[in-house]
Amino acid sequence: MKSTRVRFVRRTATAVACAAVLLPLTACNDSAVESDDAGKGSQGTHAGAKPNGVDKLAAKEIYDKGMQANADAGSFREQMQRSDAKSDLRLSATECVGKVDLLQHGSFEVIRKDSDIWGKVDAAFAAWAKENGEVVPADKWMHGGPENTVMKALSSYCHHEQFTKPDTADVEMTKGPVTRVGGASVVPITQKEAGKSRTYYVATTGTPNVVKEDSTTGGQAPDLVFSEFGVAVGAKAPAGPIVEAPQG
């Protein structure tokens, strides 16, 4: 894939690095919680949606259509879970709202709207950051732009390239039989490379959105669930006191 091979590495190898230091946290948003709400809000999964014929296509074509459909939705909810972290984010090309939990290292909330970024870390996260040479205030909303090192790190979980540069396939994939995910009819397509495997589930009715990604490698490998396609993110500045973010 144009970036799938890169993403596969990014979502596994970087997981260890992201658990070790606060900065940089680039590409730390890597997986998703399996949910019965997968596909909620999507044209591809609502009751009465008509078959879209995507399951008749070759695996690579299915992948491309699914990734493009997600981008064309303009926004969606992305849930992630792996062995050391989980997150629940609502995303668009210019907005991001949600929470990231590093499990053993604390959690933080993040809001991004265009070039404005707000973040609030809990006490455990602030203590972990301090151990790694970064001083950030706990339980206070911080504000800064993408040029601010700390805010850039926190917002790195907001992978806006999913909307601006959706993935296309350039490695072999295989197609499985139509099945169901969270009540939605989907066709699974699987990428296998270097002993690792990742399966993408694409809706076979309505809009052919990718509603779920599963890794079979375990450990640091992520899983993802996408839902609420096209639902407005509604990012806005948090209420209450806001402090300037440290540079890091």
How is this structure best described in words?
- 20% of the residues lie in helices and 31% in strands.
- It is built from five helices and 13 strands.
- The chain has helices at 4-20, 59-72, 123-131, 149-154, 161-164, and strands at 75-82, 85-92, 95-101, 107-113, 116-121, 141-144, 173-175, 179-181, 184-193, 196-203, 210-215, 223-227, 242-244.
- By secondary structure, the protein is of the alpha+beta class.
- Strand 3 (95-101) and strand 4 form a beta hairpin.
- The protein has a single domain (4-229), classed as outer membrane lipoprotein receptor (LolB), chain A.
- Strands 1, 2, 3, 4, 5, 6, 7, 8, 9, 10, 11, 12 and 13 form a 13-stranded mixed sheet that branches.
Terminal-residue CA separation:
35 Å
Summarize model confidence as the mean pLDDT. Answer: 83
At CATH level 2, the architecture is Clam
Gyration radius, rounded:
18 Å
Name of the CATH class: Mainly Beta
Overall number of domains: 1
* Helix/strand order: HHEEEEEHEHHEEEEEEE
Low-confidence parts: 1-44
Q: Name the helicity range.
A: 10-25%
Q: So what's the overall shape?
A: elongated
Number of helices: 5
Under CATH, the topology can be stated as outer membrane lipoprotein receptor (LolB), chain A
Q: What structural class is derived from the secondary structure elements?
A: alpha+beta
Quaternary form = single chain
Strand content: 25-35%
Q: How many strands?
A: 13
Key words describing this protein structure:
single chain, 248 residues, alpha+beta, outer membrane lipoprotein receptor (LolB), chain A, 13-stranded mixed β-sheet, 13 strands, 20% helix, disordered N terminus, signal, Lipoprotein
